[in-house]
Amino acid sequence: MDFNAKTNPGRESRLQQLEEDKVWDVLIIGGGAAGMFAALGAADAGHQVTILEQNEKLGKKIYITGKGRCNLTNACETSEIFENIPRNAKFLYSAIYGYDNFRVIDFFEEHGMPTKTERGNRVFPVSDHSSDVIATLQRTLKNKGVTVRLHTKAEHLEIEEGKVRGVKTSNGTTYPADAVIIATGGYSYQTTGSTGDGYRFAKKSGHTIAPLSPSLVPMTVKEDYCMQMQGLSLKNVEVKIKDGKKVLFEEFGEMLFTHFGVSGPLILSASSVVNDKIRKKELAMEIDLKPALSEEKLDARILRDFEENKNRQFKNVLSGLLPAKMILVMIQLSGITPEKKINEITKEERRRLVNCIKHFPMTLTGLRDYNEAIITRGGVAVKNIDPSTMQSKFVKGLYFAGEVIDVDAYTGGFNLQIAWSTGYLAGSSVEK
């Protein structure tokens, strides 16, 4: 259509008129995970469905999820999913139980894409290629007769007397419709087309938007020694984040030091928990580098190392205990002179070293921006949406699905599960 606009303006005009003369059954704004599953749900319910997607292809964000492997859901017990949704989990009961994680796995298996389950019950395509997820969805959409309009950007909703009437696109075409599903995503990964249009549509049509912020996102750190450890990945550590004496987050897992602060699975999950607090104030974080050892057992371990290296300098005996990139930082924090002979180190100095290893200190100062965030926190207020259908309580025939809603979850495939479940519920709930 874009090509014809350049070569045959008259033909484009005729096509535009044909679009505007037809009343579309179900229009879906956004061809991501939620949008595609909304299309499947609506098609299964007997509707003629059209997806309006502003990008050059469907599922652009899916391509980069799970580092290009696509962690498409989690194989935990369905009831456990809600434990991984820190905000508005109850709102999702109907959606998730209606189309649960095992049904998602079955869908892909039955449509020719085998899956595998890895650590933490994370589910991936056997191929390790997110493109296979997209290909499976596209093939199924085609088989179900779903129409896809690429390079088609929705500009605003047509609403009359409390009923959605259609969508007007940026090229001036109006698509009259009986129902519209907004599945536009959030602000995260803006290079994939997540421009926040859904929030604009919702707000303009009278819906409340819960405050937005990046989530599942790396965090910045005050201390400059973080840069010295850039690129260092820590496995099997415990992270604790506190606001004064109150513990906000405490989990075991993997993290990464960066030039600006910290990242990795532990930190991304933590960002979802401390999101509101850290946008207002700095928070204290400590890392237990040896969570399997009590302070007494760690002290005994260090004492053995010291006994074996009595005449060596302190700076030369830590390699068996710590990663190389941490050694200079640990020396600095412990306050022990680097050149000091091991046999001269006092019990108090050794206690300080133990404390630094068990409570490695950092100060969290904020969140990185949307382009580094996996998801957007906030969105269309759940009180504005019927949880049994995903239909707006204010505008008949208008539905919401996926990240545009004020729900978010931890890493591990839970956010995509929300997208699949809310999308399918929205699509299948459209009235005939």
Summarize the structure.
This protein is of the alpha+beta class. The chain has 14 helices and 18 strands.
Account of the protein in words:
This protein is an alpha+beta fold and about 425 residues long. The chain has 2 domains: about 1-215 and about 375-430, FAD/NAD(P)-binding domain (3-Layer(bba) Sandwich), CATH 3.50.50.60; about 220-370, Helicase, Ruva Protein, domain 3 (Orthogonal Bundle). The protein is built from 14 helices and 18 strands. The chain has helices spanning about 1-5, 10-20, 35-45, 80, 95-100, 100-110, 130-145, 195-205, 225-230, 265-280, 295-310, 325-335, 345-360, 415-430, and strands at about 25-30, 50, 75, 115-120, 120-125, 145-150, 155-160, 165-170, 175-180, 210-215, 220, 235-245, 245-255, 260-265, 285-290, 360-365, 375-380, 400. Strands 1, 2, 6, 7, 8, 9 and 18 form a 7-stranded mixed beta sheet that branches. The chain has a 6-stranded antiparallel barrel with strand order 11-14-13-12-15-16. A 3-stranded antiparallel beta sheet has the order 3-5-4. A hairpin with a 3-residue loop joins β13 (about 245-255) and β14. α3 (about 35-45) packs parallel to α7 (about 130-145) and α12 (about 325-335) crosses α13. It is elongated, with a radius of gyration of 26 Å.
